[in-house]
Design goal:
The protein is an alpha+beta fold and 362 residues long. It contains ten helices and 19 strands. It has two domains: 226 residues, FAD/NAD(P)-binding domain (3-Layer(bba) Sandwich); 127 residues, D-Amino Acid Oxidase, Chain A, domain 2, CATH 3.30.9.60.
């Protein structure tokens, strides 16, 4: 079968790899103009990445460096780079960049996506196109948009080598969680830009949860009518907002994380993510299905976004193994049967965590 995957981030690449390993030809459509870069840090599941790729990301000389504390943590960019290489080496996968999909559909005979005036037909379409999924508008038209969880997260990733020497030995590998007033802060180390995992060669990742920023998100065009639209980028940050955040950081947090946040703000590396939430009512419709954030947008507080995306990809590969064009819709219905209950449970758990934080209860 020919399968089109809409979205070329971590879950999209993982889905493409699983589908190719199941014997299908896969076209990945990525709206970005080149291989993505940037991102911060996240926890990973070694076993699931191995199951997706059929090989270990750690034994590979060009694999994914990690720091192991309460969990294994890595840089988003390192995971993306490795999955991109696995997909590029896989037989049957083709990746097309600068491909902004504007609509998705299917009938009994085929599925298709549209990119402007161009229509690309295939036997199935998999939507891995994130929390603002275009594919979801076809799969679940009555439940197509995510909602705003009531807060944003200021994020940053700072190399230890760029921090003052007085902080040497003060930055732990372990995940640190702190609550102060209206704020929640999570920080942990990930490998440095060159893969270093020893003290002084790592990077520090932070996520500063902040309530009450709706007005600046709306003014910047990141939030409209209760729907998150995009990330609040460093270029959106005014001098007055940066100075306000610096004051709050000075007054609220202690070193070493205070210095990490101040460095990120002053160097223009801090950005804001308005948190989305979405509970799925379905994952498939005919020849079209959803995976990852397109299926179940949830808060980072669950610590399970990537893990559930990989589980979606693995289930997709399993149910599509041996499928042909005639029984494609049946296979995708089986995928929905495998994943919908767990994906709903994750999203509902995330909504409860969001409500508690937005109401000042944690």
């Amino acid at each position: 079968m020919q399968v089109t995957v809409v979205g070329g981030s971590l879950t999209g690449l993982s889905s493409a790899i699983c589908l190719a390993r199941a014997g299908h030809r896969v076209l990945v459509l990525d709206q970005s103009s080149a291989l993505a870069s940037g991102g911060t840090g996240l926890g990973i599941d070694r076993r699931l990445l191995e199951l997706v790729a059929g090989r270990s990301p750690y034994d590979d000389p060009d694999g994914v460096p990690v720091i192991s504390a309460q969990r294994e943590s890595a840089r988003w960019s390192d995971i993306y780079r490795w999955l991109s290489r696995v997909a590029g080496e896989a037989e049957g996968i083709r990746i097309r960049t600068s491909a902004l999909v504007t609509s998705v559909g299917c009938d009994a005979a085929a599925a298709w996506v549209e990119i402007g005036e161009e229509r690309i037909a295939s036997d199935a379409v998999i939507g891995a196109d994130g929390y603002r999924s275009v594919t979801r508008r076809f799969v679940a038209p009555q439940n197509a948009e995510p909602s705003y969880a009531g807060y944003l997260i200021w994020r940053g990733l700072v190399e230890e080598r760029d921090l003052p020497g007085r902080l040497n030995g003060l930055i732990p590998d372990a995940i640190t969680v702190d609550y102060r007033g209206d704020y929640r802060l999570i920080s942990y180390t990930v490998p440095g830009a060159d893969g270093g995992t020893s003290p002084g060669a790592r990077a520090v990742n932070f996520a500063w949860y902040d309530r009450g920023r709706d007005a600046i998100l709306e003014q910047a065009g990141c939030l409209r009518d209760g729907i998150p639209l995009r990330t609040f980028t460093p270029s959106d940050m005014s001098l007055s907002l940066r100075e306000e955040l610096e004051r709050h950081a000075q007054q609220t947090w202690a070193d070493p994380i205070r210095t990490v946040i101040l460095h990120s703000l002053r160097q223009g590396g801090c950005f804001g993510t308005p948190i989305s939430q979405y509970v799925p009512t379905r994952l498939a419709r005919g020849r079209v299905a959803l995976v990852g954030d397109a299926a179940h947008a949830t808060t980072p507080m669950t610590g399970s976004g990537l893990r559930f995306g990989l589980l979606d990809a693995l289930a997709l590969g399993r149910t599509m193994a041996g499928a042909d064009a005639e029984d494609c819709a049946t296979s995708l219905a089986s995928y929905e049967g495998l994943r919908l209950t767990d994906d709903q449970a994750l999203s509902l758990h995330g909504e409860q965590a969001n409500a508690a934080f937005a109401a000042g209860r944690g």
